[in-house]
Specification:
Strand content: 25-35%
Number of domains: 5
Number of helices: 7
Structural class: alpha+beta
Largest sheet: 6 strands, antiparallel, barrel
Mean pLDDT: 76
Number of strands: 24
Radius of gyration: 61 Å
Low-confidence stretches: 1-27, 58-97, 103-128
Length: 527
């Protein structure tokens, strides 16, 4: 039986599956009928002029969007009186085809109900209305300079972390005047230690210095006139004593001579002569003593008249220096009991506790000099060659209410870690942000600048495979979906396009989520 015979013969059974009227789906009419003793499907598509005939035994079910199955017309299900009985095989195949189409149709009916879209039936002879163009906003793909960046991460650290300690040992912390986060100036008092014992030692040292200085001043001033006069008087007295001793000795010597004569003559005894001789020896000794006293008096007078010897003055000066050194040592210990800031900065750590005893090895405070911070980035050794000092660094701080921070590369550590094979890049950070040492930050270092195509980020629809989808407006005002490979994420909500778009292409900016390939659009330029 031919195709024309089938159309003119209403006795053959037909199953009609109509389509939905939907601007985003294709419209399709499918028949199952017998042709030349074989069951076939006849596909009338809206965009196909000639129907496609496919044998039923080769028919495969493919998804057709937004189809709805209508009840078969009783008229179409009637058979012609002249129709011959069909074989069991043909009936079975027809039943299978009918069940298949009913299942597909029911599925699309429920799909249409869930989507709350109206189901409208069309026959193969109905002319479907054209889709209404969607109004969208478009933007052009532009060619702009693009900075190539190297992504890295690191930790915020102090540019210069100054430890504050005290050399005082065993002194108790009496007062703490600052806390962590406080900004301090140079020589500002941070804490005070108990110094009562040192205060007593200071008084003693000051008294020792005064005593030594007074003695030295006395020696340098020399003898007073009264002392010289007294020394001269002692000299004169000693001279008079010598004269008296010499006179007494002369008298005794004469007596000795006379008594020796008398003893020879037997006029006196030997004992009497011995007494006279003894008196001579005593007078001679007295004379020697008088001479010695005279010499001593003369020396004392000469010393008073000449002044103190240089050696004595030098010794007194040394005693003064020693006393002053002891005083300075006590004063230094007292100064150490007042803990001050060595430079301007921010108190990063406060380890001092009230009542604890100090130790020279203990850090009481840590100060960030001038509050300067740096970001220490870890960069693989293979990428170090792309970084130079003074390069700009865009830093992302997720824990701050700022989109990004701009830093400057200050230096690259010359030593590469042997275990991780990474080098440390030090980046200067702004001082007006609430950053803390130990924070983790991500950064992008600008390594070079090239020319490339850029688009607004919101014009691209992300895809599961990492690419993006963009709808490009064609000359006939239809849209074509293109897969786009993106590169650098740029400021001002821009993104680099590596592949898929060309400079000057008009892409849909607003409304892309509601389009499909081939849709007709009208567009406006963004303000």
């Amino acid at each position: 039986m031919t195709m024309s015979d089938r159309k003119n013969n209403p006795s053959h059974s037909e199953i009609v599956k109509n389509t939905l009227s939907h601007t985003n789906t294709k419209k399709q009419t499918i028949y199952i009928t017998e042709l030349d003793d074989e069951f076939v499907t006849i596909d009338y598509s809206c965009d196909r002029k000639d129907p496609k005939i496919v044998p039923l035994n080769t028919f495969s079910c493919q998804p057709v969007t937004d189809l709805a199955l209508q009840e078969p017309s009783p008229k179409l299900l009637q058979t012609s009186p002249e129709a011959k009985p069909q074989s069991t095989r043909k009936i079975l195949i027809a039943g299978m085809g009918l069940g298949l189409l009913m299942a597909v149709g029911v599925n699309y009916v429920f799909s249409s109900l869930v989507n709350k879209e109206p189901v409208v039936a069309y026959s193969e002879n109905v002319t479907l209305p054209k889709a209404t163009p969607r109004t969208v906003t478009v933007a052009e793909v532009a060619s702009n300079p693009i900075e190539r960046t190297l992504e890295a991460s690191g930790t915020v650290s102090a540019y210069e972390l100054i430890p504050v300690m005290t050399p005082a040992t065993g002194l108790q912390v009496k007062r703490i005047l600052v806390d962590e986060g406080d900004f301090v100036t140079k020589d500002q008092v941070l804490a005070e230690l108990n110094n009562s014992t040192l205060q007593a030692e200071l008084i003693q040292a000051q008294a020792t210095v005064s005593q030594a200085e007074a003695r030295l001043a006395e020696l340098k001033a020399g003898s007073r006139s009264e002392e010289v006069a007294r020394a001269q008087e002692r000299v004169r007295s000693a001279e008079a004593a010598i004269s008296q001793a010499e006179s007494d000795l002369d008298l005794v010597q004469k007596r000795v001579k006379r008594n020796q004569t008398l003893e020879t003559e037997g006029a006196i005894s030997r004992d009497r002569l011995d007494e006279i001789l003894n008196q001579e020896r005593v007078s001679r000794a007295n004379l020697e003593q008088a001479k010695a006293r005279l010499q001593e008096a003369k020396q004392e007078l000469a010393q008073l008249q000449a002044g103190v010897r240089p050696e004595v003055i030098s010794q007194a000066e040394a005693e003064v220096i020693q006393a002053k050194g002891r005083l300075q040592y006590i004063q230094a210990q007292l100064k150490d009991t007042i803990v001050t800031a060595p430079a301007n900065g921010i108190v990063a750590e406060r380890n001092a506790q009230l009542g604890e005893l100090t130790s020279p090895s203990e850090t009481l405070f840590s100060i960030i000099e001038k509050g300067r911070l740096e970001l220490r980035l870890k960069v693989p050794e293979t990428l170090i060659g792309e970084i130079r000092p003074q390069q700009k660094v865009r830093i992302l701080a997720d824990n701050l209410n700022v989109p990004s921070i701009t830093g400057i590369v200050r230096e690259i550590d010359p030593i590469v870690d042997g275990d991780s094979r990474q080098a440390t890049v030090k980046v200067d950070l702004p001082s007006n942000l609430d950053l803390k040492p130990g924070m983790f930050l991500r950064a992008a270092i600008a390594t070079s600048q090239t020319q490339g195509e850029t688009v607004l980020t919101k014009a691209l629809l992300p895809q599961p495979d990492g690419t993006a989808l963009a709808f490009v407006v064609q000359p006939d005002n239809t849209v074509k979906a293109k897969s786009v490979e993106i590169g650098e994420i740029l400021p001002n909500e821009q993104v680099e396009v590596l592949r898929g778009l060309n400079s000057g292409d008009r892409i849909v900016l607003k409304g892309a989520a509601y389009l499909k390939d081939g849709d007709l659009v009208t567009y406006t330029e963004p303000n």
